Amino acid sequence: MDEVEVVVAHSERTTLRVGGMFLKVDADRARLDAEAEAMAAAPVPTPEVLWRKPSVLAVAALPGTALGRLGEPSPASPAAWARAGAVIRTLHEAPLPARTGRGADDWAAELDRECGLLLARGILPADLVTRNRRVAEAALRPWEPAFVHGDLQITHVFVDADDEVTGIIDWSEAARGDALFDLATLTLGHEERLDDLLTGYGTDVDPDIVRAWWSMRGLTAYRWLTEHGFDPAAPGCELDVLRAAM
Questions:
Q1: Rounded to whole angstroms, how far apart are CA atoms 85 and 201?
Q2: The sheet that has 21-26: what strands, in order across it?
Q3: pLDDT in the model for residue 204
Q4: Which residues contact 224 (CB under 8 A, 6 or more apart)?
Q5: Block mean pLDDT (10 aa), the chain, length 246
Q6: Inter-axis angle of helices 207-227 and 104-120, to 10 degrees?
Q7: CA of residue 232 relative to chain centroid, distance
Q8: Looking only at Cα atoms, what is the longest distance across the chain?
Q9: What is the distance between the alpha carbons of residues 222 and 120, in angstroms, rounded to a whole number?
Q10: Burial status of residue 160 (CB atoms within 10 A of its CB: 0-12, 13-18, 19 or more)
Q11: What pLDDT shows up at residue 86?
Q12: Taking the domain 62-244, which CATH number applies?
């Protein structure tokens, strides 16, 4: 009998693995519906949806291994990263999904709120917050909306031994958004892999905006991570990313 593995568990969502199947349990049914619709529309490899019921989405496990893990050197080759870049470019050039993601004004409001809370609660040093806020504000510029994954963490992109992308998982945040946010999320904590990624994606990317999104994501996610059982101060994770911008 297959054992049940708890992959992720917090107050918003729980993901379980049972053999070759993942069960995603979410109190927000609309978010599960949006995830299934995004996978169906995305012109890139995604997990097979096995079945759907209210509050539960069952998907098949992907072959291959993730590009890496936050806080650890990526074992994937430069060719694998380049191939991932090409696949992500295909996604970003696809017809836009119906779901609208956060715009620059939304991000500005979130940045203001989270920086205020980080300082008021003494979660991060004031100079670290102030410096990274200045860096992050460069991301708050007009952008051409693209079909973005929205949570393109390094653990969400799978490749095989031939450096081919076998699939991208966890589409709950997919929407219209800034393409460079996806690139920044994937390379968060792996700045040394940005050039490999852009080899496949294309060179028409401003690295300073990617860096701005690194600071933005670190500041806006830090408090949530600490409150939901994650450790953003672990080596190579969000705190180190924020310190690198100093």
A1: 4
A2: 4-9, 13-18, 21-26, 56-60, 49-53
A3: 87
A4: none
A5: 82 90 91 92 97 93 96 96 98 96 96 98 97 98 97 97 97 96 97 97 93 98 94 95 91
A6: 50
A7: 15
A8: 53
A9: 14
A10: middle
A11: 98
A12: 3.90.1200.10
Q: Which two tokens stand for residue 141?
A: 């510029």
Would you list the domain boundaries of the chain? 62-244
Contacts of 136 (CB under 8 A, 6+ apart): 111, 212, 213, 215, 216, 219
The dihedral of CA 68, 74, 75, 78: what is its sign?
A: positive
Look up residue 115 and give its two tokens: 């920086």
Q: Is 208 exposed, middle or buried, given 0-12, 13-18 or 19+ CB atoms closer than 10 A?
A: exposed
Model pLDDT, residue 68: 96
Q: Which of 45, 44, 177, 4 is nearest to 103 (CA)?
A: 177
Rounded to the nearest 5 degrees, what angle is found at the Cα of 102, between the Cα atoms of 97 and 107? 160
